[in-house]
Amino acid sequence: MDKQDNALPVVFSGEGRDYFGIWVVNLLLTVLTLGIYSAWAKVRRMHFFYRHTSLAGVAFDYHGEPLSILKGRTLAFLMFMAYQISAETQPMVAAIVLLVLMAVMPWLLHRSLCFRMHNSSYRGLRFVFRGSVRQAYVVFLGLPLLILVSLGLAFPLWVHALKVYQYGSSAFGRSGFHCALSRAEIYRIYLVAGMVAIGVTVAITLLLGLGVAETLSVEEGAETRALAMVGGVALLAGFAMMLCVAPFVAAGVQNAVWNGLSLGPHRFRSAVSGRRLAFITLTNLLGVILTLGLYRPFAELRLMKYRLQSISMLPDGDLDDFVALIEADVAAIGEESAEMFDVDVGL
Amino acid sequence: MDLSDPPVTALYFDGRSSRARPVMLSVTDGKLVTCGEDVERRDALAVLRLSEPLGHAPRLVTFPDGAHCEVSDDAAFRRMLARSGQRDAPVVRWQFSRTAVAVSLAVLVACLVLAHEWLLPRLARQVAERVPAELATRVSDETLAMLDANVFGPSQLPVARQQALSARLATLKQADMPTVRPQLLFRQGRPMGANALALPSGLIVVTDELVALARNDEEILGVLAHEMGHVSQRHGLRLAIESSAVGLFAAWYIGDVSALLAGVPAALSQARYSRGFEREADDFAARLLVLNGIPVGRLADILERMDGPPEPLEGGSRTGSEHSRSPFAYFATHPLTAERIHRLRAAP
């Protein structure tokens, strides 16, 4: 049964010039209030992206309260300062603080997922995060440790577990999402990307090494210098390849996640092209640099728009049949501290 | 009450199911009238939550019981609200006013410039003074190792000469000046030419070419005093902190972590002492020289000789670039050095 013909694409109607004005004014107020206004700025930014996103003609909505977010950010800031100060004065205390933070982080991230889901709605129904705290510890502490132990080989495993936890434990009203992502798919994406990146880096290093070996002069110490130079170029090439390959990985993962996502009888589709994503990312970077930063809000919007509009829903039946779930308010502490410590549990 | 305003179409959601119901909205006597297929309600405008205008996004009207309406026609909605006396908050109006946005942008840029020129140096100074000695030593040792591997060669200066200079340096009186315990090291400068370099831990590297360039030991001591000034004021650390802060900010703003990894070494290698730092070091040197009975003009003499066409040394190796402004080459046709010479000669 081919459901392609009644696919409902996600539509993003936000425009760069509107976002630019919002971004500038809110940034100024944030700077003038030494960061306190950032909570209001964040809510406004969320509103901008949520309410410009629509499916089947109806927009999404964000309900986060600035004061909750401010509380969360203040807590995150205090934790950060506690660590910094203890690192200066008593390294032993700093180590303990770090361990405590590590122990608490999965719980905070769990709260952040609950908060983000609860404050998102569509057609008046809130989303819900049903993931357990225990699973949060596996995903956010256990598996990262496994990555360390396995020298990075377990990384795709972690990505898989994260996506399944995040998407598979979510619900829209009373209806749960199901994430049928397989480990094999994720491993394939990372394997291909890894091989390409390593292959090209090795090729460049070999070519350069051969070239240098031919033109090597008899100058004293030139050998070590040449080796250092080749090593440096290899490192740079490695980084550059990782940058080039990253959009393809992101595209692959987004597609894999959404193609395997379902909500009751309804399915989803994602058709992100790695090449297009790479192009957008690169031109965004150039734009930001050439305009000395002014292009940034446009860049953000452009990227978000492409990723969102690549997603569509394949409905099987009416979208009117979802029912709400009544649940108590969820405090905001989780979301902001997750952002402070640079953990992205986004799309 | 204005009857000429047509009612605004909207979608109504009751908050309990996902069903969308088309309705018509109108405002009568300060109340919002919602009217549609099996929906009929009147709510005082005061208890409703009206979403901010946000470009092309639909407006949302949220009722106290959790139901809400989605209005796509922003203009019509605005007209309806305006007639009932609703006004957007100032912040909202600024976001969509070109003048306000332009002014905000200008103020933001001004803040950024202020932060870089005034706030950052002060913060860097505070942090530099609190860096523990072990860290300073480790940074210095690593920098020296890197320079020895890539730039410097072992010194060709006779050991006796090295020891004599070190002894002379050690006997310099510092009195009530912030004490510096310098340790003198000699190297062949090669691409760096005639130069001296101060590391945060107090290590001062002097190149053979500089010793050759000097006409007397007092000139060398002048340069060393200047370098001691850099150490006592922790210029190396302050500069590293400032560069890192700028690098971090740039990487965060551009949003790419890998840019950070490539940028920090780049930033540090591009590091150069600002005029302020050079002036501080010169002032320290002047005071130290005067305290030890050495004419301040000696430092100016050797600077003059360094600033200009490179003197060919035995073996004909090049002595550094002429246009670099980094501390790794005093060779500069830049007015900064001329200004320093002038200032040193004018010192009492």
Overview of this structure, please?
The complex is a heterodimer of chains A (347) and B (348). Chain A is an alpha+beta fold and 347 residues long. Chain A contains 11 helices and 10 strands. Chain A has a 10-stranded antiparallel β-barrel with strand order 1-2-3-4-5-6-7-8-9-10, surrounded by 5 helices. In chain A, helix 2 crosses helix 3. Chain A is globular. The two termini of chain A are 29 Å apart. Residues 327-334 and 336-347 of chain A have low confidence and may be disordered. Chain B has 348 residues and is an alpha+beta fold. Helices cover 49% and strands 15% of the residues of chain B. Chain B contains 12 helices and 11 strands. In chain B, the strands form 2 sheets. Chain B has a 7-stranded antiparallel β-sheet with strand order 4-3-2-1-7-6-5. In chain B, a hairpin with an 8-residue loop joins strand 5 (49-50) and strand 6. Chain B starts with 7 loop residues before the first strand and ends with a helix. Residues 309-334 of chain B have low confidence and may be disordered. The chains are: A alpha+beta (347), B alpha+beta (348). At the A-B interface, helix 1, helix 2, strand 3, helix 8 and helix 9 of A face helix 2, helix 3 and helix 9 of B.
List the helices and strands and how they pair.
The complex is a heterodimer of chains A (347) and B (348).
Chain A: E1 8-12, H1 16-32, H2 38-51, E2 53-55, E3 58-62, H3 66-89, H4 91-118, E4 120-122, E5 125-129, H5 133-149, H6 155-168, E6 170-172, E7 175-179, H7 183-214, H8 222-259, E8 261-263, E9 266-270, H9 274-290, H10 296-309, E10 311-314, H11 333-340
Antiparallel strand pairs in A: 1-2, 1-10, 2-3, 3-4, 4-5, 5-6, 6-7, 7-8, 8-9, 9-10
Helix pairs in contact in A: 1-2, 1-10, 2-3, 3-4, 3-11, 4-5, 4-11, 5-6, 6-7, 7-8, 8-9, 9-10
Chain B: E1 8-13, E2 21-28, E3 31-36, E4 39-44, E5 49-50, E6 59-62, E7 68-71, H1 74-83, H2 90-95, H3 98-129, H4 133-150, E8 153-154, H5 159-170, E9 183-188, E10 196-198, E11 203-207, H6 208-213, H7 217-232, H8 235-254, H9 257-269, H10 275-291, H11 297-306, H12 335-346
Parallel strand pairs in B: 9-11
Antiparallel strand pairs in B: 1-2, 1-7, 2-3, 3-4, 5-6, 6-7, 8-9, 10-11
Helix pairs in contact in B: 3-8, 7-10, 7-11, 8-9, 11-12
